[in-house]
From TrEMBL:
InterPro entries: LemA-like_dom_sf, MamQ_LemA. Belongs to the LemA family. Its main location: membrane. This is LemA protein. Gene3D superfamilies: LemA-like domain. Coiled coil: none annotated. It is found in: Membrane. Pfam families: LemA (PF04011).
Length: 185
């Protein structure tokens, strides 16, 4: 009888362990899938930028430094040596350069009237929105994963199997600044 009780307890603990472990694996998978969604959108944006820049070059002779800055930041993101944090930092810098670029386009009515530029601009704005959504999804997935890694009793299983907390994606200092709009110019 004692063997049955001991066997039942071992079976319950084993099933509990497996369920908790599988829950951690599932959340880690969701976190990785959310990161891959960010990666897909960054790739999409990466592919669009040369077309946008070449279209704009025809009109923006005096703004070549801004255009070359965008291309340089675009190329930094794809470096295989970058960690996720460095990729996010490079992405934030590119987003800032693109915001500057879009504000400069206001000074070029011929460019704003160009149909291919407008289509590329709309696509890029849409992609920027998708990047933002993907980052939100990633942070939500990281929160769920981290909660599971830190919560009792799954934290015991997480520590045994080397599940570690992950950091959130955060806005850069540049993105936190208030946008200044000046109508006097």
């Amino acid at each position: 009888m004692g063997f049955l009780i001991a066997g039942g307890i071992i079976l319950i603990v084993g099933v509990f362990w497996i369920v908790m472990y599988n829950g951690l694996v599932k959340l880690r998978g969701w976190k990785e899938e959310a990161w891959s969604q960010i990666d897909v959108q960054l790739k999409r944006r990466f592919d669009m930028i040369p077309n946008l820049v070449s279209t704009a070059k025809k009109y923006m002779e005096y703004e070549k430094s801004t255009l070359s800055d965008i291309v340089e930041k675009r190329n930094q993101i794809t470096s295989p040596d970058l960690s996720r944090e460095e990729q996010v930092q490079a992405d934030n810098q590119l987003s800032g350069a693109l915001r500057q670029f879009f504000s400069l386009t206001e000074a070029y009515p011929d460019l704003k009237a160009n149909e291919s530029f407008n289509k590329l601009h709309e696509d890029l704005v849409s992609t920027e929105n998708k990047v933002a959504y993907s980052k939100q999804l990633y942070n939500k997935s990281v929160m769920q994963y981290n909660n599971k890694v830190e919560s009792f009793p799954s934290n015991l299983i997480a520590s045994v199997h080397n599940f570690r907390k992950h950091s959130y994606l955060e806005a850069s200092a540049e993105e936190r600044q208030t946008v200044r709009v000046d109508f006097d110019k």
